[in-house]
Specification:
This is LOW QUALITY PROTEIN: uncharacterized protein LOC117545945. It comes from Xyrichtys novacula. InterPro entries: Znf_C2H2_sf, Znf_C2H2_type. Keywords: Metal-binding, Zinc, Zinc-finger. The protein has 134 residues and is mainly alpha-helical. It has one domain. Helix content is 67%, strand content 3%. The chain has 6 helices and 2 strands. It has a two-stranded antiparallel sheet with strand order 1-2. Strand 1 and strand 2 form a beta hairpin. The longest helix has 39 residues. The mean pLDDT is 79. The structure holds zinc ion. Zinc ion binds next to loops.
């Protein structure tokens, strides 16, 4: 991410007539991909990375104009994005844990009269009880 932002800043600071800059700008302004379309390429990532790092497209140019401040912004942005990613990972794993422990404590439980096993649904209990009939 940091490298992407560094490269992006480099290109934004290029003179407007340089080809890489023209191509990038065409993509940033007009680039719209169909849902489920082609795989993300580097230049697609270049659109997403600043967003993830809290750098909004309109301020991109001003931000990149000054190299030292762009570096600082990139560094902070990458840290921010990394924290956000970590938070989401944590939230995801907590949700997973919760979902695992939930069936025993919430919702209507269908308890097997033979062995006391709790099933999540009536049909689940039914098919479980068939194992006792053999
Ligand atoms: Zn049973």
């Amino acid at each position: 991410m940091h490298h992407q932002l560094g490269w992006l800043g480099h290109i934004i600071r290029m003179p407007a007539n340089r080809l890489p800059r023209k191509i990038l700008y065409g993509q940033l302004h007009l680039g719209q991909r169909s849902a489920g379309g082609p795989k993300k390429r580097l230049k697609d990532k270049l659109k997403i990375t600043p967003k993830k790092c809290g750098i909004k497209p309109p301020s991109l140019e001003d931000a990149a104009a000054d190299r030292p401040s762009w570096r600082g912004l990139s560094q902070k942005g990458v840290q921010l994005a990394e924290e956000e990613r970590r938070k989401q990972c944590l939230a995801k794993s907590q949700r997973r844990k919760l979902a695992q422990s939930a069936p025993a404590t919430s919702g209507p439980a269908y308890t097997c009269p033979d062995c006391g096993r709790r099933c999540k649904s009536r049909i689940g209990l039914y098919s479980h009880q068939r194992t006792h009939k053999q």
